[in-house]
Specification:
The structure is a single chain. The protein is α/β, with parallel strands linked by helices. The chain folds into two domains: 2-88 and 282-299, Rossmann fold; 90-274, NAD(P)-binding Rossmann-like Domain (Rossmann fold, 3-Layer(aba) Sandwich). The protein is built from eight helices and twelve strands. The protein binds NADPH dihydro-nicotinamide-adenine-dinucleotide phosphate (NDP) and oxalic acid (OXD).
């Protein structure tokens, strides 16, 4: 029984090593070492080259090496096997660290402190808002959004969240559906985006949405945090919104095109904080362990979990 690992953009060596360790009974092959197509039962993808999984007559399931699966949608030759995404505490906790870190950096004006230190200026901020003075709205209350919401609310932020279907979370005011979105935006000082990229969500972070965010909050203007996907944001609208004051600042981990082009104006904008799509990286040991556990459970006759709904795209 074999597993076909098709990865682009990441070094495949640590993945091969971890899959061998966690699935010792399986042969781990890559498109370059694949000889016996009929032996492949499982495919594992991160931005695989289109066609990597064609002509595998015994394929049972495809696994994404991330929480998102939009990176597989570019492949018109993708077989109809179930697609399983990563839902794992390591990935979840790393994302919450990024969200909490960014929210606190905006709350505490870290960029001002850096400027002051560079200029050897000693000036404290007597008007410092507390987390309880700031309202955070999270787009997406799934595995990642719900955990970030919980952790932000533990710190004291007034936390809200928005999802497609109704959700209930302790300490988090929940909104859902098209009707719920504007109500949350109108009260949001920090907007966190942890949505999947689907046909319904592409381009959702645009000027029309930014204009609906709360005014008069303690941060001096709305702040955007996007670690969902670059395709969710309209980068020209983010720049325009920062320049005309519709947004005060933005922390972006994901971009319309990755890697972000050297000449992108986002790099040098004084109100933008950039990270290179590493808000929550797929750690090979944790993720290979998760995929291996899913495969072993499936082979014991249990149903696959965290299977993507092809109609919804997540
Ligand atoms: P989930 O599928 O668990 O959650 C998705 C959430 O988005 C759900 O609450 C869902 O609503 C909501 N949602 C989806 N479509 C809509 C819509 N049209 N309107 C309103 N709400 C919607 O995903 P995860 O939390 O595990 O991951 C979210 C995304 O985070 C991934 O898809 C990936 O793109 C990104 N990611 C980024 C990483 C990084 O390093 N930057 C790392 C890992 C993930 P409902 O609850 O009703 O289904
Ligand atoms: C993911 C990612 O989807 O790393 O997990 O972006």
């Amino acid at each position: 029984m074999s597993l076909l690992l098709a990865v682009t953009g990441w070094d495949e060596a640590p993945w091969i090593e971890r899959f061998k360790r966690h699935l010792p009974e399986h042969l781990i092959v890559t498109p370059a070492t694949l000889t016996d197509r009929a032996s492949i039962r499982y495919g594992v993808s991160w931005r695989h080259a289109p066609g990597a999984f064609v002509d595998l007559p015994n394929l049972k399931a495809l696994f994404s090496l991330g929480a998102g699966v939009d990176h597989m949608a570019h492949d018109p030759l993708l077989p109809r096997a179930p697609i399983v995404r990563v839902v794992d505490p390591d990935l979840r906790d790393r994302m919450s660290e990024w969200v909490v870190m960014r929210a606190l950096m905006h709350l505490r004006g870290v960029r001002r402190l850096e400027r002051q230190q560079a200029a050897r200026v000693w000036r404290d901020d007597r008007d410092q808002p507390a987390a309880r003075d700031v309202r955070v709205g999270i787009l997406g209350l799934g595995a990642l959004g719900a955990d970030s919401a919980r952790k932000l609310s533990l710190i004291g932020f007034r936390t809200m969240g928005w999802s497609r279907t109704a959700r209930a979370l302790d300490g988090v005011e929940c909104f859902h559906g098209e009707g719920g979105l504007d109500a949350m935006l109108a009260r949001t000082d920090i907007l966190v985006c942890l949505l999947p990229l689907t046909q319904a969500t592409r381009g959702i972070l645009n000027m029309r949405l930014f204009a609906k965010l709360a005014r008069g909050g303690r941060l001096g203007g709305p702040v955007l945090l996007n670690a969902g996907r670059g395709g969710l944001q309209v980068e020209s609208d983010i720049l325009a919104a920062l320049d005309d004051g519709t947004l005060k600042a933005a922390s972006l981990d994901v971009f319309e095109t990755e890697p972000l082009a050297q000449d992108s104006p986002l790099w040098s904008h004084p109100a933008i904080w950039i990270s290179p799509h590493d808000a929550s990286m797929s750690e090979p040991d944790a993720v290979a362990r998760y995929v291996a556990a899913s495969i072993l459970a499936f082979e014991r006759g249990e149903p696959l979990r965290n299977v993507v709904d092809p109609a919804l795209g997540y």
